Amino acid sequence: MPPEIPPWWHRLLAKPVLLKIALPIIIIISWAVLSVLIDNEFILPSIGSVLLVLSKPFADILGSGSLVGNAMVSLGRVLIGFFVAAVLAIPLGIGMARNEKVHDFFDSTIQVFRPIPPLAWVPLALAWFRIGLLSMVFIIAIGAFFPILLNTLDGVKSIKKTWTEAALTLGAKERQVLAKVILPGAAPTIWTGLRVGFGIAWMCVVAAEMMPGTNSGIGYLIITSYNWGQVQVIIAGIIVIGVIGLGIDYLFKIVEARKFMWRELDR
Amino acid sequence: MTLSVENISKEFEQRGIHSPALVSINLNVEDEEFTCILGPSGCGKTTLLRIIAGLEKATSGQVIIDGEIVNGPTSRMAMIFQDYSLFPWRTVLDNIAFGLEMKGIGEEERHKVAGHYLDLIGLCGFGKNFPYELSGGMRQRVAVARALAIDPSVLLMDEPFGALDAQTRNMLQKQLLEIWDKTKKTVIFVTHSVDEAVFMADRVVVLTSRPGTIKEVVKIDLPRPRDRTSQDFATVRRYVLSLIDEPQLIQ
Lengths: 267, 251
Known about the structure:
The structure holds 2 protein chains of 2 kinds.
Chain A: H1 8-14, H2 16-38, H3 47-55, H4 67-98, H5 100-113, H6 122-129, H7 133-157, H8 161-169, H9 174-208, H10 218-227, H11 231-259, H12 261-265
Helix pairs in contact in A: 3-11, 4-5, 4-7, 4-9, 4-10, 6-7, 7-9, 8-9, 9-11, 10-11
Chain B: E1 3-14, E2 17-29, E3 34-38, H1 45-53, E4 60-65, E5 68-69, E6 77-80, H2 92-96, H3 98-102, H4 107-120, H5 136-149, E7 154-158, H6 166-183, E8 186-191, H7 194-200, E9 203-207, E10 214-219, H8 231-250
Helix pairs in contact in B: 4-5, 7-8
């Protein structure tokens, strides 16, 4: 009997690259087919009309600014909120990990606030800070705060006791132990917290920008496009959000691979 | 250098129950002497070393080095741990230079000094490597170099070769003795291996099982370099072994 030729899908699945792009291709083809079948730009626009929007990233859309312009506004807000969260969460995490009293003082409160979705704060943010940058930064910071805090706590706690003891016997002062042992030793885990925190912050900004009264940002652009029935702009906006989120995550991962390789390799 | 351990006792408290770990330890360590603290596991020998290092507080008694009471870690003494405790994010050279960096010595100068100790431990050419690229034995040598680089009077070693295979262990014992000979440091070396203690030490401080007290201080007069296979070595070894075994026989 001649050897059986494996079916084509077996050969396809044998190649990881092909496997990785298979689902996106299926989605795009389904989209193309469905948009023809549905034939309604208000429900599912054609790929072409979305690409048309994406092809002019700097063009003004419905008087609401361009894709890139609004994305940059969102990114700026995220950076501010993220920075506020990091500045608060990293020292607090180190303090809690190093000192049991500090831990006990903050822990119960943190456990209560942690499960609250950042968006549940939207009405309060509006009541306290009015519509504007401050309330958005507040919500973004809440979203990014907890992953950064918990990872910092974890990272500092996982530091080997003999690292700090060795440093002390080698003449390091408390402050030097913090700067030269605890921070670098916990840095990989803190970095993971920053990466996760940034991802959540990026999700929060889009939602925060959908708050009434906002007049810029990629979330604002999407909600305005909805009001004008411009579904192709909504999808283009979603793609921009995804690409930026992916890109930033990739940057975090590159730094991780370059700087924090030792965590994986040190046995 | 003078180092004396005066009437050190240590109690641990667990759920309100006090249990003694060390009772009335008195010990004078002489300059440039190689002292081994030997005892069964759980006898408190590591605790004793940590108290000497200033990493742990004694319940009573005191450690005095060069006329000063030890209140915390001091750069007169450097500790070497069983798990090497190298900083994995630093290169070998920067690990060795750590103590000098803490003193505020500039990069060029401290790398020069660190390079010297890198040569001393026979690892020149590995300065730019990271600890995870080295074997266990090599890492422990780096830890020794890191301790030596701050030029302490005393090296405290807590079962430094305990995690290594027998061959590497024997090799590192010889290397450590060579380094000790060259640098003239006082060494206090904790081990549970009778063979290691007799091979390395000028004096072996034998502790009893918990609570640890000094059972006997055995002076090892065997000429160096010592021959593990010699009759004299076996005689001393057998004697020290009998000190360790005794309490269990009585029980």
